[in-house]
Design a protein that fits this description.
The protein has eleven helices and eight strands. Helix 8 runs parallel beside helix 10 and helix 10 packs antiparallel against helix 11. The chain is globular, with a radius of gyration of 19 Å. 48% of the residues lie in helices and 15% in strands. The strands form two sheets. A five-stranded mixed β-sheet has the order 4-7-6-8-5, sandwiched between helices. Strands 1-2-3 form a three-stranded parallel β-sheet. By secondary structure, the chain is α/β, with parallel strands linked by helices. The longest helix has 36 residues. The protein has one domain: Spore Coat Polysaccharide Biosynthesis Protein SpsA, Chain A (Alpha-Beta Complex).
Length: 264
């Protein structure tokens, strides 16, 4: 769990991990980027239930790579400190990895929630759920329809594809899925595994334009000139999604004054 100045959310994120039960051993490692809010005080309250470090890092990828170096488990998951795991998510994941030795990585459904934890943007969730039903590497090159907090992989598979790229800011997860997917097909889990918290100040909420530019760059690099049509489709999909996000932002700006007037 990489973290930086998320005192408002990190307790809920940690609780969503520690409340998981099932036939598995659980290890939670929090890599905090030397937060200046109350994050460290909250982490101290968990005692021996978690392992954590708070120190400066070079970004999210660097923090996660440091966490990977400390991890002792056979299966790895990545939950940001403002997101949540759904109840019984880890039990479902552990059962699949135990019963399917051929499965090297898997991904499941993820809800989008607002700052208060209420589900929002159900139509985006429905679209992603439809896209993820069957894994295809060329299809993944056309669009990133996998939500990071719903992904788990064997540590041995991660060791083969290498660490997260520290030169990427927005799409280090997408690059990692493409590296895994180039070697092994992703296994779809038809179950909600996590909640992604979307709000205007979040990383995804505040920077969708550079995010989609970096996604296209990553897809083009991983295609290595062998998949020109998926890259063409990726350009079309990026334009489509950017337009939708712009329209949503315009709608918020237009309705905000009316909402403020009503509040008075």
């Amino acid at each position: 769990m990489p973290s930086y100045n998320h005192a408002e959310f990190i307790g809920k994120a940690i609780d969503s991990v520690l409340s998981q039960t099932g036939d598995f051993e659980l290890e939670l490692i929090v890599m905090d980027g030397n937060s200046t809010d109350a994050t460290q005080s909250i982490l101290k309250q968990y005692g021996q239930a978690i392992r954590w470090r708070s120190e400066p890092d070079e970004g999210q990828a660097d923090a996660f790579n440091k966490g990977l170096a400390l991890a002792r488990g056979d299966v790895i998951g990545w939950l940001n400190s403002d997101d949540l795991y759904e109840p019984e998510a880890l039990a479902a994941v552990a059962e699949i990895f135990a019963s399917e030795p051929q499965t090297q990585w898997l991904y499941g459904k993820v809800r989008i929630v607002d700052i208060a934890g209420r589900e929002i943007r159900r139509w985006i969730t429905a679209y992603k759920n439809w896209r993820m039903r069957r894994f295809s590497y060329p299809k993944l090159l056309t669009e990133n329809w996998i939500s990071q907090m719903g992904v788990f992989w064997r540590r041995s598979a991660g060791e083969q594809v290498g660490p997260f790229r520290t030169d990427l800011h927005w799409c280090l997860d997408y690059d990692y899925w493409l590296r895994l997917g180039a070697r092994w097909p992703g296994r779809f889990v038809n179950k909600y595994l996590a909640d992604f918290r979307w709000y205007s100040a979040s990383k995804s909420g505040a920077g969708y334009l550079p995010q989609f530019r970096e996604e296209l760059k990553v897809a083009t690099q991983r295609a290595e000139g062998r998949h020109p049509f998926p890259i063409f489709l990726h350009c079309l999909n990026a334009a489509k999604i950017i337009t939708v996000y712009w329209m949503l932002g315009l709608r918020r700006r237009l309705t905000a004054p009316a909402a403020k007037e009503t509040a008075r």
